[in-house]
């Protein structure tokens, strides 16, 4: 059980089970508040909790560039300054940083680099990839299992 309150400009979260008290930023406070409204929750087969998509949708476009850079930096294990410099084109990320960013964004490097690759023919998504990207998580997982089964039996 978690209790939340704000006092003197601080966002305070109390984890009753462990006794831990946390002072969190506005984004974390809102995420915790959104998740608290979704209990009981069950973990899906893909390791995500039911309701994750609803939280992402509720937060989409709500926060400014600095807040999203900070969140991405924390998730990828890099500094906010690094994320900012990469976004502005001042810094070319190392391969290990690019991998961390891709994992944090849950996307492949091709979707990030496609706009920067100068080739004789433009980089294009195949129609199959476009169809797969529009599937929900459960259908993606099932499609992946079917494709792996086909490839294993060729």
How many H/I helices?
Answer: 8
Could you list the spans in which at least 5 consecutive residues all have pLDDT below 50? none
The biggest sheet, with number of strands, parallel, antiparallel or mixed sense and barrel status, is: 3 strands, antiparallel
Shape: extended
- Estimate what percentage of residues fall within beta strands: 5-15%
How many domains make up the 3D coordinates? 3
Strand order of the largest sheet: 1-2-3
Structural class: mainly alpha
SSE topology string: EEEHHHHHHHH
How many runs of DSSP E, i.e. beta strands? 3
Spatial extent as radius of gyration? 20 Å
Terminal CA distance reads 51 Å
What is the helical fraction, as a range of percent?
A: 40-55%
Taking all residues together, what is the mean pLDDT?
Answer: 78
Keywords for this entry:
single chain; 154 residues; mainly alpha; 434 Repressor (Amino-terminal Domain); three-stranded antiparallel beta sheet; 3 strands
Task: Please describe what this structure looks like.
The chain has 154 residues and is mainly alpha-helical. It folds into three domains: 1-63, no CATH class; 64-123, lambda repressor-like DNA-binding domains (434 Repressor (Amino-terminal Domain)), CATH 1.10.260.40; 125-154, no CATH class. 51% of the residues lie in helices and 11% in strands. It has eight helices and three strands, in the order E-E-E-H-H-H-H-H-H-H-H. The protein has helices at 26-36, 52-59, 65-76, 80-88, 95-105, 109-113, 127-133, 137-152; strands at residues 2-7, 10-15, 20-24. It has a three-stranded antiparallel sheet with strand order 1-2-3, with helices on one face. Strand 1 (2-7) and strand 2 form a beta hairpin. The model has no long low-confidence stretch (mean pLDDT 78).
């Amino acid at each position: 059980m978690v209790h939340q309150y704000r006092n003197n400009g601080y966002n305070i979260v109390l984890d009753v089970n462990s006794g831990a008290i946390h002072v969190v930023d506005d984004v974390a406070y809102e995420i915790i508040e959104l998740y608290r409204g979704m209990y009981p929750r069950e973990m899906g087969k893909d390791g995500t909790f039911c309701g994750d998509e609803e939280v992402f949708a509720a937060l989409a476009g709500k926060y400014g560039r600095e807040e999203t850079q900070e969140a991405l930096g924390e998730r990828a294990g890099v500094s906010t300054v690094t994320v900012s410099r990469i976004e502005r084109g001042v810094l070319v990320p190392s391969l290990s940083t690019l991998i961390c960013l891709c994992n944090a964004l849950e996307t492949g490097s091709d979707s990030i680099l496609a706009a920067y690759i100068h080739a004789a023919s433009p980089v294009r998504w195949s129609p199959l990839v476009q169809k797969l990207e529009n599937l929900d998580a459960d259908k993606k997982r099932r499609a992946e299992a079917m494709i792996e089964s086909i490839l294993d039996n060729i």
